[in-house]
Amino acid sequence: MNYKIKCSKCKQNYQLVTRPTRFVVCYECQKPDLKGEITDPKMKKLLDIPEQFYKDNLFLRDIKIKYLRFGDLSEKQIAAFEKVVDKMQKAVMKD
């Protein structure tokens, strides 16, 4: 079940969520956090997905922000990221 919640930061934009989330932040509020230089070629390839995927999915934005902040991701984070991206790409191909 999907529903929309107002952004916890700006209180203007709505974000589509699928489960209860404590702190929902819209794409516009997180956009500055998503900017950054990715030097690792493996991570650059992994995180180079269409911008629309980041707009639609709070989890994908969170993973990219964590990589930019800490400089590394665990194998489980990488696997979950790839799984969500594959699922979104398949959904786009169906439409």
> Strand-residue fraction?
5-15%
- Tally of distinct domains: 1
Q: Major sheet: size, sense and barrel closure?
A: 2 strands, antiparallel
Low-confidence stretches: none
Shape call:
globular
Number of helices: 5
Number of strands: 2
How far apart, in Å, are the first and last alpha carbons? 20 Å
Q: What Rg do the Cα atoms give? A: 14 Å
Helix fraction bin: 55-70%
What topology, given as strand order, has the largest sheet?
Answer: 1-2
Structural class, by secondary structure, is: mainly alpha
**H/E element string?**
EEHHHHH
- The whole-number mean of residue pLDDT values reads 90
Structure, described:
The protein has 95 residues and is mainly alpha-helical. The chain has helices spanning 27-34, 41-47, 51-56, 58-70, 75-94; strands at residues 3-6, 14-17. A two-stranded antiparallel ribbon has the order 1-2. Strand 1 and strand 2 form a beta hairpin.
Looking at this protein, list some descriptive labels:
57% helix, globular, 95 residues, mainly alpha, 5 helices, two-stranded antiparallel sheet, 8% strand
